Amino acid sequence: MVPNELEQTERTRTYSWEDQSIGAKIGATLSGMDYLLGMMAGKYPAPAIAHTLDMGLESVEAGKVIFSIVPQEFHYNPIGAVHGGVFCTMLDSALACAIHSTLPAGTGYTTLELKVNLVRPLTVNTGKVLAIGTLIHAGRTIATAEGKIVDEQGKLYAHATTTCMLFPWK
């Protein structure tokens, strides 16, 4: 009897996340900087997507946020490299949070546009990569940011820009 190849290669991954309504309620009452710093310190729940991708918040300063990932097999597309959606999620998070870091309490935002350029693949051999988001402009209703994904030696894997709409939380 020949064993099923799929059964021999199956992997399992489990993870947990916190109640997302807690962060949403608290986040509406704090400045973006206070909320992000509190999240980084573990005072507020991280977004569920961060647990799904095993993505960490590395640093926060006004107008600049850095997330990290160590590429894993569960990030892969069918051809054996990290899925483009992982790049996009990392960059959307870093760019939007760079904007969020400058917002006063009671101000929300949402991504209107995200433009991503993937310039080389990520694999399990790449090692830790950083998604660095930097504010370009924050107006009354629109903000823009730019960013990149680099490895720890500074090698570029992707770059992006975003436009976010700003609005009052109700």
Automatic annotation (TrEMBL):
Annotated ranges, domain Thioesterase: 80-157
Record CDD domains: PaaI_thioesterase
UniProt entry keywords in alphabetical sequence: Hydrolase
Annotated GO CC locations: cytosol
One Pfam family from the record: 4HBT
Gene3D superfamilies per record: Hotdog Thioesterase
UniProt-recorded Gene Ontology molecular function terms: 1,4-dihydroxy-2-naphthoyl-CoA thioesterase activity
Protein name as catalogued: PaaI family thioesterase
